[in-house]
Amino acid sequence: MLSIKRLTKQFEVPGGSIRAVRDLDLTVEEGSFFVLLGPSGCGKSTLLRCVAGLEQPEEGEIRLGERLVYSARDNVSVDPEDREVAMVFQTYAVWPHMTVFENVAFPLTEAKKKRFPSAQVAAKVKEALVLVRLSGFERHSAATLSGGQQQRVALARALIREPKLLLMDEPLSNLDAKLREEMRDEIKELTRSLGVTTLHVTHDQIEAMALADLMAVMYDGKILEIGQPEALYRNPGNRSVAEFLGRTNWLSGVVAGNGTVTTEMGLVKCPLPNRAGPGSRASLGIRPEWVELTAEPCQSANSFAGTIEGRMFLGDAVLYWVRVGESRMMVKTTLTEFSIGSRVSVVVPAERWVVFSETA
Ligand SMILES: Nc1ncnc2c1ncn2[C@@H]1O[C@H](COP(=O)(O)OP(=O)(O)OP(=O)(O)O)[C@@H](O)[C@H]1O
Ligand SMILES: [Mg+2]
């Protein structure tokens, strides 16, 4: 549905230029939910705006379905309103002086080329408001709505255009935590039931993993890695991707051969990267929830004696900081019985480690 090739967008700023999107390739399959995850300033909004036609790139091409909507080489740039995409913004961009009805109807009543009879507009608005669970709010002033309701209006306004591609730029980040989760689940449900192809941008890794069929981790104008959420989480291709997707305990060590690495914690058995021969340096990462704690001394491989140094109760889990020799591990578990000073065994299953070669 969406194919982006070698896209580059730069901005002229005092003292030089910023390449916000660098030679970027991306494909989004029809009907799928694709999420771009990356830190602030990495170029996510710029990329979406290029797809929507709100920014003019310098290089590359963009296709929507079979249709070329932007090409630097062929000097093609289709107007935003003719691209059959709709965008939802972080700031909602709902017009406060209009009613809910007028806001949602706006793309139909203002579109230059498409004129719909008013009965049809009313029917479509009604349908869109059912989808976002705002039936009955037609005549409310948009200014009186809560943040979550405004975001629903923005979503209804995007869906009413029946876009080929729905672009969402951090639509949930201004909502409080509970509402954000609810809206997240609703968006997933809604886009799945409508079958609309969606490109969603966020800097929240949980939101990204919850929503995505496929996700890309973006950094500094480029895509670091693309994959299914679980695959990227379990088996990231590099340390940056691992870190974007969640907290990780890192150890540094020297490959000792036989599938082991000598670390400050002791000898760790783990999968080794290709070409990591004895003597080479490696980074070992383990997520807090993959570390097991026991009160009993444990003789199995990859178990280490430790002492609890910190404890934080999170409701559905407890975070512990455990001292093991020279290193400190964060452990996330549902076990609540350990307190500061408790002696424990820390067990880290060999297959759970992610290991990368360290270049000198
Ligand atoms: N109109 C502009 N003029 C100059 N620089 C810009 C402009 N728009 C974006 N930039 C720069 O381009 C880079 C990418 O910005 P962009 O807004 O795409 O980031 P982002 O990933 O959406 O960040 P955030 O998560 O904070 O929204 C930033 O360095 C930003 O300062
Ligand atoms: Mg942005």
Can you describe this structure?
The protein has 360 residues and is of the alpha+beta class. It is built from eight helices and 21 strands. 37% of the residues are buried. The mean pLDDT is 92. It binds adenosine-5'-triphosphate and magnesium ion.
User: What compounds are bound to the protein?
Assistant: adenosine-5'-triphosphate, magnesium ion
So, the CATH homologous superfamily of the largest domain?
P-loop containing nucleotide triphosphate hydrolases
CATH level-two architecture of the largest domain: 3-Layer(aba) Sandwich
- Per DSSP E runs of 2 or more residues, the count of β-strands stands at 21
Number of helices: 8
Provide key terms for this protein.
single chain, 360 residues, alpha+beta, Rossmann fold, OB fold (Dihydrolipoamide Acetyltransferase, E2P), 3 domains, six-stranded mixed sheet, five-stranded antiparallel sheet, 21 strands, 36% strand, globular, binds adenosine-5'-triphosphate, binds magnesium ion
Layout of SSEs?
Elements: E1 2-13, E2 16-28, E3 33-37, H1 44-52, E4 59-64, E5 67-71, E6 76-77, E7 85-88, H2 100-110, H3 118-131, H4 147-159, E8 165-169, H5 177-194, E9 197-202, H6 205-211, E10 214-219, E11 222-227, H7 229-234, H8 239-244, E12 249-257, E13 260-263, E14 266-269, E15 281-286, E16 292-294, E17 303-313, E18 318-324, E19 327-333, E20 343-347, E21 354-357
Parallel strand pairs: 3-9, 3-10, 7-8, 8-9
Antiparallel strand pairs: 1-2, 1-4, 4-5, 5-6, 10-11, 12-13, 12-15, 13-14, 15-21, 16-20, 17-18, 17-20, 18-19
Helix pairs in contact: 2-3, 2-4, 3-4
The structure holds adenosine-5'-triphosphate and magnesium ion.
